[in-house]
Structure formats: C-alpha cells, structure tokens
Amino acid sequence: MANLYRAGLELHVDPGRRQLHVYIGGELNKTYPVAVGKPATPTPAGDYRVINKVINPGGVLGTRWMGLDIPGGNYGIHGTNNPASIGNRVSLGCIRMHNSNVEELFPQVPVGTPVRISLVPGYNAKGTPASHHNPGSGPPLDHSVHMVAPGDTLWKIAKRYNVSLHALLAANNLTNPDVLEVGQMIYIPR
C-alpha cells in the first residue's frame, strides 16, 4: 500500500460484511476485516471525514485512533485490545480493526479523508430494521436473506436452507459461527 497518501483516497465501511475497503482514485486497493456496532448501538451510515488521529490511545482503542465527524457521538476507526471481536457486530458504533491493520493504514490516511459507511441490509441509517425494501439494496442477486430469530444458530440456518456452514460463513464474511445476534441479516447463497 505504498503511496496511499495521494488524492483520491477514500475509505468505505461495509457493516453488513464487516469490511473496510480502501479506494484510490475509485479503484479498490485493499480490504480489511473489521468489527462494527452491535444492533443496539449501530455504526451510523453516511458520508463522513477523518477529523483527528491519535497514536497509542490505549485500552479498548488499541494502538491507533482515527476520529470521524459523525454527529452525536465520539466515533472512529481504531485498533482493539480484543482481536476476537473482529468480524462481528459488537462495538458501541466505532469501527474496530486488528492493531497491525490499523497501524498499516494509519500513516496513509490524512485528516480530511472521506469515509463512507454503508447501510446494513435490512436496516435504515439509524440502525433499526427497515420497514420496506429499497430497490437496489439488499442481498446480491444470487442470495436471499434470513433474519436471525431467537434460538437460531448458523448450523440451524444452514440446515433449514440446505446450504453448507462454509457457504454461509463465506457469503456473510463471518469469522466466528458462534456469534449471531437476533435481528442480524444473514445472506443465504442459492
């Protein structure tokens, strides 16, 4: 990722797939796994900018912090002291990265860098379930969606839809099959 510090750098966060994409001049350059906000405290969707940067903020923030101009809170992209959380919806709204990944990205991201946070499929910008389907949003054309209900496990969902556990993990970019949350949208490959 040499020389990212040039015009056209943008960060895109996909909370549904728990990924942060680095774009340079509109071209995808790198993708990192992340943790995002849990349903009760979702990562706010929208277009923002990096407004401050801190080295070694410590504690739950890991080794780097990049603050965002999200109204109504103190949100950022940061490292973590809980690497097992990466790939899950567990934060208070921030975007968590592995410390090694945020350390790689941090020096390349100047203050002012645009950050786009997408909607989680099936949810509105406030992180609550959407009451209607928006054309152009939702699962890829070769997938359907299952909303996790109380008692669901990834194994039960795989059996119900006659797909492999591996296929569900891959389609949803999940790293831990034991972490599901009621109301979470799971892509089901056809």
TrEMBL record:
Q: In which pathway does it act?
A: Cell wall biogenesis; peptidoglycan biosynthesis
Q: Which Pfam families match?
A: LysM (PF01476), YkuD (PF03734)
Q: Membrane-spanning regions, if any?
A: none
Instruction: Give the record's keywords alphabetically.
Output: Cell shape, Cell wall biogenesis/degradation, Glycosyltransferase, Hydrolase, Peptidoglycan synthesis, Transferase
- Domain of life of the source: Bacteria
Q: Which GO terms describe its cellular component?
A: extracellular region
Q: Which GO terms describe its molecular function?
A: glycosyltransferase activity; peptidoglycan L,D-transpeptidase activity
Where would I find the LysM domain in this sequence? Answer: 144-188
**What Gene Ontology biological process does one annotation of this record name?**
cell wall organization
Q: Which residues form the L,D-TPase catalytic domain?
A: 9-118
Q: Does this entry carry the keyword Cell wall biogenesis/degradation?
A: yes
Indicate whether Ribosomal protein appears among the record's keywords: no
Q: Which residues form the active site?
A: 78 (proton donor/acceptor), 94 (nucleophile)
PROSITE patterns attached to this UniProt entry: LD_TPASE, LYSM
Q: PANTHER family recorded for this chain?
A: L,D-TRANSPEPTIDASE (PTHR30582), L,D-TRANSPEPTIDASE ERFK_SRFK-RELATED (PTHR30582:SF24)
Spell out the family assignment given in the record's similarity comment.
Answer: Belongs to the YkuD family.
**What is this protein called in UniProt?**
Uncharacterized protein
Organism in which the protein naturally occurs: Desulforamulus ferrireducens
Species classification: Bacteria, Bacillati, Bacillota, Clostridia, Eubacteriales
